Amino acid sequence: MTTTEKFIVRPGRVEDCDEVHRLIKELAIYEKMGERVEITPEVLKQHGFGDHKYFHVLVAEISESEDLATGTIGGYLLYFYGYDPWQGKYLYVEDFYVTPECRKIGMGSALWKTVIKTAAKEQCEWMEWCVLDWNHLAINFYKRYGAVNVTKEAGQIFRLTSKEVENVLAKIQ
Hints:
It is globular, with a radius of gyration of 17 Å. A six-stranded mixed β-sheet has the order 1-2-3-4-5-6, with helices on both faces. It has helices spanning 17-30, 41-49, 107-121, 136-144, 162-172, and strands at residues 2-3, 7-11, 56-62, 73-84, 88-98, 127-129. Strand 1 (2-3) and strand 2 form a beta hairpin. By secondary structure, it is α+β, with helices and mostly antiparallel strands. 34% of the residues lie in helices and 23% in strands. The chain contains five helices and six strands. The protein has a single domain (6-170), classed as Aminopeptidase (3-Layer(aba) Sandwich), CATH 3.40.630. Belongs to the acetyltransferase family.
């Protein structure tokens, strides 16, 4: 947990899911993909805080501000663990977002440093994430922390949606 005069970074709680959902939608709109958000706060509660946790989330909560209400969540970072049979456990950052009004106060850096500490504590072999190629602000942020673009050496990413899985199953059964 990281605390400053203006905000606190802490693990997300089930009661944060409505706010995290709001921020997920804001990030999707920023990334020009707002129409693709299908998840609901209820599903976030089940998947992040149910019997089997599929993800972890860090939140940055306003503790003191002239402009924002105390308790408002101004940023989040959602991650999960993966496993590579050649090297072991890694941490994958799926989403990382700070609202425009909460930028420039160190909130993003605090969230990022917290997840880096988590990866070290959990003895992860690496951290990984995807950045849209036009998001130079994010790319420069990560480079300041020593991140390296491995796109050319890594494999290409492929995907089957649940609908495509159903289509394949219909053909192979």
